[in-house]
Amino acid sequence: MNEKETHKLIGKLSRAVVFLTLIVFGLIITILVLFAFQKPVCGVPDEEDQWICGTPSLNPNYGEPAFEKGESLFNQNCASCHFPHKDMTGPALKGAVQRGEENAYVGWIYDFIRNEDSLVQAKDSYTLKLQNWHEDGVTWSHRSTLTNEEIDDLFRYVDPVFPY
């Protein structure tokens, strides 16, 4: 093969490589565009698979302003000690409102989040039980300035079937 034929072959190979590269990039862009415009499938997940550390795409309230506000409030106020659906440093928050109303009184969660110490001083039995939740004696206290509406938004994020 002489030098002229070699240059022709290299030119053909270069054009083929460029052509294949363009095809690959075109396919990648097409796939990205298709996925970008797909609506998420929001079926009813199993109870234990409903959340993975706050995954919003599985929540039927995703995209609603109260949900997004609740997510922000959870991340700012609760995420350092709580997961929505499993125990961490603190107990799982899903169902906390119902447990409070079952064991203490309606609206207990608002008092607990704003000033747990007053419930301890009043010897509220459910609050005292939660204070003993840690076997290793770790203590904690909730002192928040969240409004009832913000607490409701927070729990709508944690529990998609929150009744309020």
Characterize the structure shown:
It contains 6 helices and no strands. The longest helix is centred in the first third of the chain and has 34 residues, at 3-36. It has helices at residues 3-36, 65-77, 96-103, 108-121, 125-131, 148-158. It folds into 2 domains: 1-38; 62-158, Orthogonal Bundle (Cytochrome Bc1 Complex, Chain D, domain 2), CATH 1.10.760. Helices cover 53% and strands 0% of the residues.
The gist of it:
The chain is mostly helical.
Share of helix, binned: 40-55%
Regarding CATH, which class of the largest domain? Mainly Alpha
Find the CATH superfamily of the largest domain.
Answer: Cytochrome c-like domain
**Total domain modules:** 2
Rg over CA atoms, rounded to whole Å, is 27 Å
Largest sheet: number of strands, sense, barrel closure: none
Distance N to C terminus: 82 Å
Mean pLDDT: 80
Shape: rod-shaped
Q: Which topology of the largest domain does CATH recognise? A: Cytochrome Bc1 Complex, Chain D, domain 2
Q: Helix/strand/pairing class, anyone?
A: mainly alpha
Q: Architecture of the largest domain, CATH level 2?
A: Orthogonal Bundle
> Helical stretch count?
6
The number of E-state strands comes to 0
Strand content: under 5%
The low-confidence parts are 42-52
